[in-house]
Amino acid sequence: MSHNDLxxxxxxxxxxxLEGSNAPPEYTVSELSHKxxxxxxxxxxxxxxxxxxxxxxxAKSGHLYTALKDAEAVLDAxxxxxxxxxxxxxxxxxxxxxCTGRLTTYPGRSNYQLIIETMxxxxxxxLLKMLEDRRKKLAAEGLFDPAxxxxxxxxxRLIGVIxxxxxxxxxxxxxxxxxxxxxxxxxxxxxxxGQSAAQQVTAAIRGFNALPADSPYRxxxxxxxxxxxxxxxxxxxxxxxxxxxxxxxxxxxxxAVGHETDTTLIDYAADLRAPTPTAAAEKAVPVRAELxxxxxxxxxxxxxxxxxxxxxxxxxxxxxxxxxxxxxxxxETAIQRLDHLSSKLDLGLQxxxxxxxxxxxxxxxxxxxxxxxxxxxxxxxxxSGYGERLGHTEQKILKDRTVKLQNLSALLESLxxxxxxxxxxxxxxxxxxxxxxxxxxxxxxxxxxxRFRDGEKGAVVE
Length: 462
What we know:
Blueprint: H1 3-6, H2 29-43, E1 47-58, E2 64-69, E3 74-79, H3 81-84, E4 96-106, E5 111-121, H4 124-140, E6 158-163, H5 168-180, E7 184-189, H6 197-210, E8 221-226, H7 240-248, E9 253-257, H8 265-269, E10 272-273, H9 277-284, H10 288-324, H11 327-366, H12 369-415, H13 417-422, E11 427-429, E12 447-452, E13 455-460
Parallel strand pairs: 3-5, 6-7, 6-8, 8-9, 9-10
Antiparallel strand pairs: 1-2, 1-4, 2-3, 4-5, 11-12, 12-13
Helix pairs in contact: 5-9, 6-7
């Protein structure tokens, strides 16, 4: 019997006709597996399946093997290497996703499986749109501005950690700090998932910042951390009040929420984002051993530079010394010259004293009493002549000044208006004692005063 005789296309199950027997037909395992594969692929060529990822395995070939489950069933799934690179999310255990693809069977294990073409978080569309709208709103307020971000201290004295006290996160941070550079850590325990998590994280950030600046319990650096999880699990760190508290923190803050691919809104507001809590500890402190090695290397290089510089100066000094010659020989010449000048100075001083002494004797001979008496008499005679001349000159000047003053006084007397009044003239004044020099400046009925040589009289203008 040939392969084509085994199957009847009119029979939906592909059973061959039986002649004279009610026994079911016989199939090989491969034939039955092939038949079932074709039926499954034709009936479920395009499906969307929602479930929780229970395990993720990436083969050396790059293909991804996983399983989707719900409360009652499990469905194996495969995502080929070319499709894995195009997935919008990185599959992780515990994620609730919606996968699109086709069903097929795997004859080698007699099971069916889903060939994944696309994968997205369950309910991701509306949730991500809400988060994107919130991100744009907070960004427009300037909460994510890089200019607002504070530098992380190089070696903080005290690190404040805001996370769950029972999870692996705090242990990972402490372990990493002990490995790199042990520091004091102050834990503020909070819930990192659930309805009240956002309020607790906000209160912790504000509580650390409310500590006095001189308090020994005020941290130099804050770390807000939690492990990975689904988008819904990380929602407390997308809460608006948590983001605002992180942006308003006066203490530099590192956000370490989720795994490397997880991004929450607190990451944008924090002064620094770490992909994992362990990475946050690495960014918080330097490696002590590396720092010591750097200091020792710097010290060694500094000492080497000093020795090299001293040796260079010593060599230069020796070279200059060779160029200067023997100092004793230079001093011998100077000493000899000094002795020569000293002897000349003594001789010159003696000659100068002799010359001055001779001059003094010459002047002393000229200073006799008779000469001085004669010179005094001559000067007195000259002064007496000057005194007589000065007296005659003084009398002549006084006489000339007296005559000139008398002439000026007579001229002033002749020009006085009172002399004019004596000749029969009069002066007209208004009621304010102002002189009226023109008839045009008077008005009828105006009172005036007329001054004569011997007095004044009032009058009225007609």
